[in-house]
């Protein structure tokens, strides 16, 4: 039995039940693929259910505000995916009358849709014979064929794509693409793969040579940057705090956060003298208390954030500005924030702050 047919046979017996596998609706398939990029299925499934419930059609998603989309996305990270999702929904709804492109080539024109996502949608929804190549596929192919070319190199990306094209099952493209991804997720796992009961064990090069654990090969990541975030959590006498929206092209664009002082060494004296504090506080009656003495380390792909929250309690009201919102405690949960701040808000704003 050829490679693709073995995988499809395995898939039909072992596949997990997923809601996006019960439909050919391109809107639902697109949603699932965008959500599951860089996200485990167990984490992504609740988000998929929330999006399809809140926004049943691409028109519903297009008509939502960006804040609504970011709030529903909260916790998934890589927030540019959510902004691209929203932009594409508006384009499909308004320019394409709600009809998704029906070919791999045309799907690539959508914002946020790359080679992998376009291949998945084209094969699953329209039965086009274009192969998907994701982390699971890289792992299966590198082990089975014994390829040690780094998968995150220009040469590796090209080499594995060409190989995937030659292996594509033209009779059952949707089943094959889903089969090889599922095989990598469940059978040919990163650690402790089930080689002893693998249907490909008799012809797997890595198994023959005993180097399954060392494949696939990846080039080392870029050096991780350290940043130090000091958040000022204002608590006024009238139960208000301050939030501001992040702008620019850095992390968390469009999300909200507390007023931020970035710098490694920040103490109470530095906070009081800072312009941010001076513009918001109009009283001499205040108390500044570190929420926790130890730093909270939040790890992103290319940077680690060493974070501290300072509670600033006032016996007066707060001064606001154009880029800062005075927010009542009871409303703070409605704003889209990074998961780092969401965890803090969930813990802290359940307490009586006055």
Automatic annotation (TrEMBL):
Domain HhH-GPD: residue ranges: 35-186
GO biological process, one term: mismatch repair
Domain of life: Bacteria
Signal peptide: none
Claim: DNA damage is one of the keywords in the record: yes
UniProt entry tagged with the keyword Methyltransferase: no
Family according to the record: Belongs to the Nth/MutY family.
Function: Adenine glycosylase active on G-A mispairs. MutY also corrects error-prone DNA synthesis past GO lesions which are due to the oxidatively damaged form of guanine: 7,8-dihydro-8-oxoguanine (8-oxo-dGTP).
The protein, known as: Adenine DNA glycosylase
Gene: mutY
């Amino acid at each position: 039995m050829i490679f693709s047919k073995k995988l499809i046979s395995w898939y039909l017996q072992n596949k997990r039940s997923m809601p996006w596998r019960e439909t050919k609706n391109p809107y639902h398939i697109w949603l699932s693929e965008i959500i599951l990029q860089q996200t485990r299925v167990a984490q992504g499934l609740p988000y998929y259910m929330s999006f399809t419930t809140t926004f049943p059609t691409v028109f519903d998603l297009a008509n939502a505000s960006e804040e609504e989309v970011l709030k529903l996305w909260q916790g998934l990270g890589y927030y540019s995916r959510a902004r691209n999702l929203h932009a594409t929904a508006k384009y499909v709804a308004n320019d394409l009358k709600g009809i998704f492109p029906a070919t791999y080539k045309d799907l690539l024109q959508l914002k946020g849709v790359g080679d992998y996502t376009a291949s998945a949608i084209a094969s699953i929804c329209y039965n086009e014979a274009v192969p998907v190549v994701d982390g699971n596929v890289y792992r299966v192919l590198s082990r089975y064929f014994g390829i040690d070319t780094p998968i995150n190199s220009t040469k590796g990306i090209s080499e594995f794509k060409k190989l995937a094209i030659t292996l594509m099952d033209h009779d059952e493209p949707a089943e094959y693409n889903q089969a090889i991804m599922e095989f990598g997720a469940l059978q040919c796992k990163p650690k402790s793969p089930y080689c002893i009961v693998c249907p490909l064990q008799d012809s797997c090069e890595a198994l023959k040579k005993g180097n399954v654990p060392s494949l696939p090969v990846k080039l080392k990541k870029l050096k991780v940057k350290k940043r130090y975030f000091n958040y000022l959590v204002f608590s006024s006498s009238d139960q208000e705090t301050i939030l501001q929206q992040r702008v620019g092209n850095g992390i968390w664009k469009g999300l909200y956060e507390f007023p931020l002082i970035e710098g490694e060494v920040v103490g109470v004296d530095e906070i009081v003298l800072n312009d941010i504090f001076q513009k918001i506080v109009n009283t001499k009656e205040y108390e500044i208390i570190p929420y926790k003495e130890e730093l909270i380390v939040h790890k992103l792909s290319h940077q680690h954030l060493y974070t501290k929250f300072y509670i600033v309690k006032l016996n007066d009201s707060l001064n606001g500005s154009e880029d800062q919102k005075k927010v009542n405690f009871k409303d703070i949960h409605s704003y889209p924030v990074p998961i780092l701040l969401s965890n803090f808000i969930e813990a802290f704003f359940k307490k009586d702050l006055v």
